[in-house]
Amino acid sequence: MNKDFLHITDFSAEEIQAIFDLSTRLKMETHKGKPHHLLRGKTLAMIFQKPSARTRVSFETGMCQLGGHALFLGPADVGLGKREAVKDLAQLFSRYNDLIMARVFDHEHILQLAEHATVPVINGLTDYNHPCQVMADIYTVLEHRGHLDDLKISFIGDGNNVFHSWLFLAQRLPMQLGLACPEGYDPDQELVEKTRSTGLSEIVISHDPFDIATGSDVVYTDVWASMGQEEETEERAKIFQPFQVNSELMEAAGEKAYFLHCLPAHRGDEVTDDVIDSPQSIVFDEAENRMHVQKAIMVTLMGAT
């Protein structure tokens, strides 16, 4: 077991399944009100360059349920790579805390934290990838389908950090993974080719959302302009409009297709109300599962299972 969780490929397929099994156990115990203080007395330092309600609440609540304590550190508290060198902060928090979770812009910062920390580091998001989110996503799909056989995932929108984590996942679990994006908004080509080279999954990149979505098990979308891209919002809205997930696109996917969104959703932009509020939408199960899966990841990294 690697001491850090920076990319989904830090876990083997067998380790991913073990995390899912543990997630199920912890979720059932939570719903039954049964305590599971596997990290009693442990502390988690949460470094946030980018704010997020779901990431903060899921990690903080999850750590509390595990019997530990989480500390929120915002931009005013930690000037990561500005007021203080990343490697100094990594060593400092390793003296204070048992785990570090960081949600940052620059992927290099999470790599530096992991390099210099002596406690496990968890990637809460970078501009390059978002592994905790996609672990929760695929767990939610497993929960609803009962299996991951013959899986077709269709990502509609930007070839962004979330899609990059789907590519990492496709290096561990077999699937047909498709992306429909506007020209010029493709994912990292080196990562695409590396994923294809494993021979495990089929990766399809297209500029036609209906071509990608037809016959899908899951249709996934994300906001058109991520944090840090606010100045591009109006331009992106025009470019991405044909990639909106609406009832017509879901009809092409099929009545058994599930809809996923990592949230927050901009209703009326990347997804319409009739889709996100439909019986096919499992976005709130997906959001809840962030907490259960992250708890399982923290317990696993601490060797507390």
Task: Tell me what the structure shows.
The longest helix has 19 residues, at 13-31. A five-stranded parallel β-sheet has the order 7-6-5-8-9. Helices cover 43% and strands 14% of the residues. It is of the alpha/beta class and 305 residues long. It is built from twelve helices and nine strands. α7 (189-197) links the parallel β6 and β7. The chain has helices at residues 13-31, 53-65, 86-96, 107-116, 131-145, 161-170, 189-197, 209-213, 233-240, 247-253, 273-276, 283-301; strands at 43-48, 69-73, 99-103, 121-125, 152-156, 176-180, 202-206, 218-221, 258-261. The chain has two domains: 8-130 and 290-301, Aspartate/ornithine carbamoyltransferase (Rossmann fold), CATH 3.40.50.1370; 133-286, Aspartate/ornithine carbamoyltransferase (Rossmann fold, 3-Layer(aba) Sandwich).
CATH homologous superfamily placement of the largest domain: Aspartate/ornithine carbamoyltransferase
Number of discrete domains: 2
CATH fold name of the largest domain: Rossmann fold
The dominant shape is globular
| Secondary-structure-derived class | alpha/beta
**From N to C, what is the helix and strand string?**
HEHEHEHEHEHEHEHEHHEHH
Strands, total number = 9
Give the low-pLDDT segments.
none
Q: Quote the beta fraction.
A: 5-15%
Largest sheet: 5 strands, parallel
Spatially, the strands of the biggest sheet line up as 7-6-5-8-9
**CATH architecture label name of the largest domain:** 3-Layer(aba) Sandwich
CATH class of the largest domain: Alpha Beta
